[in-house]
Automatic annotation (TrEMBL):
A GO BP annotation: peptide catabolic process
Transmembrane segments: none
Alphabetized PANTHER family for the sequence: PROTEASE M1 ZINC METALLOPROTEASE (PTHR11533), PUROMYCIN-SENSITIVE AMINOPEPTIDASE-RELATED (PTHR11533:SF174)
Lineage: Eukaryota, Metazoa, Chordata, Craniata, Vertebrata
Statement: the UniProt record of this protein carries the keyword Transcription: no
Protein name stated in the entry: PSA aminopeptidase
Keyword field: Aminopeptidase, Hydrolase, Protease
Length: 230
């Protein structure tokens, strides 16, 4: 209703606040998706920082309850919920989540304590969103060293979270390099487009500048339509 302009977005935010004690992954996934759309819209306004504060307020109680490590008797959905919540808090700049993500990322890179598969995406997203050229270089090194395609794809999907314009360009150039399989290039560009306001503009310009190569590469198949959609 809010998207259709029938009710105020403020009413939606009030409803979202009522879910702070919600334990269900599916509900949080839906809340996260809707807040993501709202964040994207508000990234063009003065309210962007305020919506990040709202995200932290709504997600921090469930984040504190879940913690970073699995508890005995947890199910698959709890692991999914932990990844979703920590990623959301980290991206929004929640201080404690950012600090812990950086600590665990350092241990992971140094081989002291390898991150479990379900924590890798939220940690990668958090350190990249608030990272610099060294962080990006480390991620690209992890990509190069990865034995499994699943890990390469996981890294490719989150590279676009990086914020600085020159690093966004580096990620886009990487998308068309031989390091990335042609069928995965779209994921990298899509990640940039969804990562930030600057990323959207840069990805759109990049697609236009490289349209001939991209079009010839995908020959009008489903990947070109997916690229346009993202």
């Amino acid at each position: 209703q809010a998207r259709a302009g029938i009710i105020s977005t403020v009413e939606v935010l009030k409803v979202m606040e009522a879910f702070v004690n919600e334990p269900n992954y599916t509900v949080w996934s839906d809340l996260s998706c809707n807040l993501g759309i709202l964040s994207t819209l508000l990234s063009h306004t003065d309210f962007y920082e305020e919506i990040q504060v709202f995200v932290k307020d709504v997600f921090s109680p469930i984040g504190e309850r879940l913690g970073w490590d699995p508890k005995p008797g947890e199910g698959h959905l709890d692991a999914l919920l932990r990844g979703l919540v920590l990623g959301k808090l980290g991206k929004a700049g929640h201080k404690a989540t950012l600090e812990e993500a950086r600590r665990r990322f350092k241990d992971h890179v140094e081989g002291k304590h390898i991150l479990s598969a379900d924590l890798r995406s939220p940690v990668y997203v958090t350190v990249l969103k608030h990272g610099d050229s060294t962080t990006l270089d480390t991620m690209l090194k992890l990509h190069k060293q990865a034995d499994m395609q699943e890990e390469k794809n996981r890294i490719e999907r989150v590279l676009g979270t990086i914020s600085q314009p020159e690093l966004i360009q580096k990620v886009l150039t990487f998308a068309l390099s031989e390091e990335v399989r042609p069928q995965d290039t779209v994921s990298v560009i899509g990640g940039v487009a969804g990562g930030s306001k600057q990323g959207r503009k840069a990805a759109w310009k990049f697609v236009r500048d490289n349209w001939e190569e991209l079009y010839n590469r995908y020959q009008g198949g489903f990947l070109i339509s997916r690229l346009i959609k993202v």
